[in-house]
Amino acid sequence: MTKKLHYLDPSETLEDLQEFYFPPYITLAHMFHAPEEWSLKPRVLKQYQLQYVVEGYAEYVIGGIRYHTSKGDLLFQGPGEAHYVNTVPGKPYVCVSIVFHFGSAEFPLQDLLAFGRSEAETPHDMGNYSDHSLENRLSELVHYYRQPGTLAKVRCQQLLMGILLALSEARRSNEAASAVKESSGSAKLVLIRNYIDSRLRSGFRHEELERLTGWSRNYVITQFKQAFGMSPLQYLVWIRLEKAKGLALQSGMSFSEIASEVGYSDIHAFGKMFKRKTGMNLSQFVATLYRDTPDR
């Protein structure tokens, strides 16, 4: 019987985590499709856990606090917190579970995630990230966790720390976009972003953004990059990539249909873009993502 590392005390897992050379140590990362009427009996983990709802609905209870979770909801729990899960008859439940620890290293994770602030009544609720880039990062983490070799494990660690950092920033700012709206200039940047979002398939020209804002092309690019970390064109490629990943995982659409849906008439150009940005083709991204057996 395979040892389930995510049930163990952190110090008991290190001997088996030969491809992880530094924390965070990830002992479980999988996508789970719950069978009909599945439930998880009360248990206590000695490690941290992130639980993300990819599809469906479930009742999750942590430390006596009840959470009714649906698509996009992300929960976080710390070591020693009793929890259990109940699904709803007739409703699906697909989730991503990430269990990890920092070994003997001291890491102020609860401080990073801003526990004890305005979310005190629901300390485990990290928010809803449906159609957010974080959803795709979780899926990528699962993908790389199933791959052999040190490089894949380092990618997992990089993705996990990026996820935790994104959660920290969202908890402290109540989403970066709400902070951006505080000034009229920032409101224009949000307008640009929304405009690009609405033209995912058709694309845009910089002249359109100039008319939209009254700014010059160079000023649009400079301000947008300063606010969002990428140029408007890079942002368009990014949202197309994230949309393609979501369609590949959940829609059952063909490769050519996905390419068309995200604005690529040339399937080869789409394939080159996807591989350049992710290091794998679309089939490879999906192929090893799912875990077939339930974790009880």
TrEMBL record:
Q: Which organism is it from?
A: Cohnella herbarum
MF term (GO), any: sequence-specific DNA binding
Q: Where are the transmembrane segments?
A: none
Q: Which Gene3D superfamilies match?
A: Homeodomain-like (1.10.10.60), Jelly Rolls (2.60.120.10)
- What PANTHER family does its record include? HTH-TYPE TRANSCRIPTIONAL ACTIVATOR RHAS-RELATED
Identification of the protein by name: AraC family transcriptional regulator
- InterPro entries named in the record: AraC-bd (IPR003313), AraC_XylS_family_regulators (IPR050204), Homeodomain-like_sf (IPR009057), HTH-like (IPR037923), HTH_AraC (IPR018060), HTH_AraC-typ_CS (IPR018062), RmlC-like_jellyroll (IPR014710)
Tell me which UniProt keywords the record has, alphabetically: Activator, DNA-binding, Transcription, Transcription regulation
Q: Which residues form the HTH araC/xylS-type domain?
A: 190-288
